[in-house]
Amino acid sequence: MTNISKTQKQGKSLPPQLIIGLGKFVWTTLWQIMMSKLAPRNQTGEYIRPSSQFRNFIKTGDDIYPPASGRYTLYVGLGCPWAHRTLVVRALKGLAQTISVSIVVPSPESGGWVLKSPELGCQSLAQLYALAQPGYSGRATVPVLWDKQTKTIVNNESAEIIVMLNSEFNEFALNPTLNLYPEALKQKIDWWNEKIYASVNNGVYRCGFAQTQAAYNKACDELFTTLDEIDAALVHNRYLCGDAVTLADVRFFTTLFRFDIVYYGLFKCNRRRIQDYENLGPYLRDLYQLTGVADTCDLESVKQDYYGNLFPLNPGGIIPSGPDMAYLLKSSDRHNITKA
Prior knowledge:
alpha+beta
């Protein structure tokens, strides 16, 4: 009888390079499939954000969607920067008693937002969208401005919702004289909004969701070029448009708040932290310390929603323990800014 060595009985091991190569091929293929669903891309690998689909307006004198207290609800995810904008304006204007809020949370299993408890026979945001528009097959995103009376979605575009919250509910607001979008500054606010949206608000996602090195490099260069420009512009201006906070600051703030927490690491925006900028750091603290704003900021939800649910970017699902955000409570001294 021929003796068979122990090594032969066990079989030969695959060379390490083959194991690594096979693992890389399988993971890369799966990653590309998952990213195609999470983040639509163009031919160069750049992330392309889909447009919002519900674009109606609440307006004084409107027969369909008139301003009213208790009629409308905001569906928001606490980790989402776009939804966060609406919470900030709601807080600044003093609309907590006028517009209710319903919190949704991301579900990694279903790949979408779910309601904390069933509402209107719906357990998920996708079902709520289908209730508003039977047969709807698009993305179910937050924020959602919901009309309880007609049981439909008024609007799901954050940039438009915050304009409505600013101007159309003043008769019910606790702070009706605050105008975050004054006529005299609209052109300047719109200019900042367009600039910041492309390279910062959406720019961090273009970095994190880039599917080629070239796409990432382009987005990262644009992001930090714009941050450097804004840091310089804030030398002699307390806020983006002068001495008063505007919608441009609100839209910028919700990205800045998340930057050092998730975008710096998870989205590879790690050239520099916001808190290390000479002016952007204090500017972020200034906005955070405005009355009611800190109450809209949920650090743990932000970390959980990004690190815990963006599986293609963090397959292990491990939530980092930091960073320490206590610096946000330090004095910003921005009220002493002197114009040039």
